Predict the structure.
Amino acid sequence: MQRDKEIVHKTMAAIKGKNTGLELAIRKRIHEAGLFYLANSSRVVGHPDLLFPSAYVAVFLDSEFWHGYNYEEAISKVKTNNAFWAKKISRNMARDKEVNEELTRQGYLVLRYWGKQIQDDPDQVASEIIEAVKSRRELLSRSKGITNKTTLAYIEKDGAYLMLYRNKKKNDENQGKWIGIGGHLETNENYIAAMKREIKEETGLNVKDYIYYGAVDFFNKSAPGQRMYLFKVTSFDGELIECNEGELAWIKKEDIDDKMIWEGDKLFMPLLNEEGGKLWRLSVFYDESGNLSSYIGPLLVKGKAR
C-alpha cells in the first residue's frame, strides 16, 4: 500500500526530534548543577541526548512513539500505514538495544528515560542523572595516586592459558583462586621488566613476545587501591618449574569460567581476545567481603601500547 504523503508529513512534523521542551527542562537542571555535558554528541554511537565524557555516562531522553513504549498496544492504534510504522518503530527499538550494548561494551553507563517520566517529575530524572555522573567521577578519581602496582600475564599455548591455583602461601589474598602469573613491581622496576621477572621466577619460562593491554585498578574499603598491568604472552621458551605459590596448569579458554576466579577477572579477560596496539582501562570495586560491588569499563583510552 502506498503511503499517504500528507499524513506522513503531518505525523513527522508533529513529533519534534531534538531540543524538545522536555529535553531543555532536563538540560536546564543539569546546567544549574554545574555539570558539563555534550548535547546530541556524535562522539559516540547513538548520539546521546546528553553525554558526560569524563564520567562515561550517556543519557537518552526517548519519545514514546518513536522508541516503542508499550509497543503492542501503541501500534495497534495506528490505523494508517500500520505496517510501515510497525517496521520503523521495531527497527528503532532494535537500534536502541544495539546502541545500549555497544556503549556498555565501551564502558559507558547508559541511562534512558521516557518523555512521560520527564513530564511527570523532571526534578527526579535530573537528580538521578546528576547523582550517577557525580558517583562515576568520584569512583574514577580514586585511580589517581595509586602506588601499589602489580603485573598479571596470561601465557597462551594451544587454546589454553597457563594459570596458577593459589593454595600454598599463608594469608594469601588469592587463596583458592585461579589467576594468571604476576606479582608486585620492585623498586625502580618498570611493569614490562616486572612481568618478565615474575614469569621467570614463578614458571621458569622466558618471555619472547607479548601484548600489553593496559591497566586494571582494584579497590576495596579495607585496603589501598592496586593497579595491575595486564599482559598476554604469545611466545616463550624454557621448561616449567614447580611454583612455591600454587599449582600451575594449562587451562583451556572455554573452561576458565568453570574455575574459581575473581569476578573482576571475568571483566578484563575478554580483552585478551582483542588485537594488540590498543590500551584499555578498567576500575573494579569490591566490598569488604570480597564481592564485586561495581566497575567502570573496560574503557578504550588514547595512546599506543608499548
